[in-house]
Specification:
Helix content is 48%, strand content 21%. It is α+β, with helices and mostly antiparallel strands. The termini are far apart. Keywords: Lyase. Its EC number is 4.2.1.96. This is Putative pterin-4-alpha-carbinolamine dehydratase.
Length: 102
Amino acid sequence: MRVLFNGRAKHDYLSDALALLSGWTREGEQIRRTLVLDDTQHAALTERVAVVADALRLRPEISRRADRTHIKVGHGDGEPLTEGEVLLAARIEDAVRAVTTS
C-alpha cells in the first residue's frame, strides 16, 4: 500500500529524516557536510558515493580543499529537496563510516 503525502507532510517527513543525519546542515534546498579525511579516504569515499549516486540518478558535488572533503546534495536552484537526496545523504553516511573505520 502506498501512502500519499501532501506538501506539508512531505516536508515534515524530510525534516525528520534530516534530523537523524548528524553533521549535515541544510542551506535552503541543499544539504551539506564537511569531513576531515586523508587523500586515500577521500578517494574511497568518492568512489563509493559515485556508485550509490548513479543508482539513484543523482549528482552530489564532492570537492576537496586542503584536508577537508565538502559534500553538497540538492539542486540549489529553487527545486525542493527530494526523498532520494535525503536517502543519498544517508548512504553517504554509511560510506563515511566504511572508509573511516577501515
